[in-house]
């Protein structure tokens, strides 16, 4: 009856041995996963910021935010950038960063990689401004045909949006201006003031500072508004890290300490955002990819 209704004594011993092995494997897997999670929670969080300024200047500008994030997340946060836009895009595509702060077009590439999702963006929109010096005779973008136009780095979002204005106004082909890329927006408009260029493409953020400083520049054309920099989180981060990071970023403007940090990083504050808001920037992707090496 025993052989019919249940395992034999030999079969029972084999079954118990197999069960014990499975329990050991399960325990090992659970222990390994717990140890891995604990190890991951101890490593620094890498916050990748697109190289829109020199590495030294960028580190100095974001040190206060880094310290604040480290305190809030209860983990060391390290700011990392790259030597070029090309390198930053490659590192993002390799999931080098846990958190990312980058331009609209680079944000789309990051989300397209499958490693990241959009979390937040600055509360103020961004646009490209085509400026000339006040004494200059140019009144329309067509007047700049075949002339010299200074730009920030060619792969930067503002440069792409500004060049699109020339295309939309038929200033292309033989009429296209000579674009002269500079490392920063400031260097681009300084080229106009110094006579190295006839016009410059800069952001509305920089233009506001220019007007506040009384620098003699005049706007002759500007693009539509887009969401500013994208703040992204890696999908593989633990939920707590992503949640606290986003909460910390969007709550900066609500405290005196946070407002001081915003002044240091020169951003007005942040709000939650979706990747759909950035989709209009996808129109610039073909020109972006032409400039990548």
Account of the 3D structure:
It contains eleven helices and eleven strands. Helix 3 (55-73) runs antiparallel to helix 10. It is globular, with a radius of gyration of 26 Å. The protein has helices at 2-5, 9-42, 55-73, 85-93, 104-112, 157-168, 185-193, 204-213, 239-250, 256-265, 285-291; strands spanning 45-49, 77-80, 99-102, 116-122, 128-133, 148-151, 178-181, 199-203, 217-222, 230-234, 270-272. Strand 6, helix 6 (157-168) and strand 7 (178-181) form a beta-alpha-beta unit. The protein has 293 residues and is α/β, with parallel strands linked by helices.
How would you briefly describe this protein structure?
The chain has 293 residues and is of the alpha/beta class.
Total strand count, please? Answer: 11
Biggest sheet architecture: 6 strands, mixed
Helix content: 40-55%
Q: Helix- and strand-based class?
A: alpha/beta
Distance between the termini: 77 Å
Rg value: 26 Å
Q: What are the segments in which pLDDT stays under 50 over at least 5 consecutive residues?
A: 1-39
List the helices and strands and how they pair.
Layout: H1 2-5, H2 9-42, E1 45-49, H3 55-73, E2 77-80, H4 85-93, E3 99-102, H5 104-112, E4 116-122, E5 128-133, E6 148-151, H6 157-168, E7 178-181, H7 185-193, E8 199-203, H8 204-213, E9 217-222, E10 230-234, H9 239-250, H10 256-265, E11 270-272, H11 285-291
Parallel strand pairs: 1-2, 1-3, 6-7, 6-8
Antiparallel strand pairs: 3-10, 4-10, 4-11, 5-8, 5-9
Helix pairs in contact: 3-10
